[in-house]
């Protein structure tokens, strides 16, 4: 990673923090609605020292990673199936397109009725939020494979399954990588909604509980923690992909949007 790619984001975050601090010092902001950065840091220190932050972070991390893994496990085979089977595509496409237009949070009442108010309902929200980026990315990658490559495989005598594994799937990996990154981000975005109902732990619960107690400093602290963990998880995902598929490094760099 170049110095520029470290320096630019660091400068941006430092500038935002400086403007935030100056606005508070100058009295341009309401200390209740937007506490000073020092108050948020104090809240983070308090939560860390008491162990509350670690407890909520571990619960949320488990939910996000499990929901993300389930969405990937469902999306990848379904994308392959719908890309290679015209009958499956004809049957499932309208249903999936309909579900894609429905916000996952709008399905919370149904998920509560079907799955209860336990972990299954929370995982269901995260899966619904993170499923389509992976599914659409991988399916688009499969559909966009150069027909000439497939024709070369046929000329070489490869069976249909061999063409799929040796040509189609590797060619679709760049789009899959982008879908995975978007999906992981959506998992974190859905977290607060997932922990909104009948939850007693998690960063989303901590934020909502702090709102009820009028602790804006803790609300902001929770938001900062979710954002930081989201950035870190995206970085780790890109590192893992570049280790497993080193030839995708250029695509990972291009997908740094």
Automatic annotation (TrEMBL):
Pfam family, one: BPD_transp_1
Subcellular compartments: Cell membrane
Principal location class: membrane
Record's protein name: ABC transporter permease
Alphabetic keyword roster: Cell membrane, Membrane, Transmembrane, Transmembrane helix, Transport
ABC transmembrane type-1 domain: residues covered: 57-237
GO cellular component: plasma membrane
Species whose genome carries this gene: Pleomorphomonas diazotrophica
KW Cell membrane (keyword) present: yes
Membrane spanning residue stretches: 7-23, 64-83, 95-117, 123-142, 188-208, 220-241
GO terms classed as biological process: alkanesulfonate transmembrane transport; cellular response to sulfur starvation
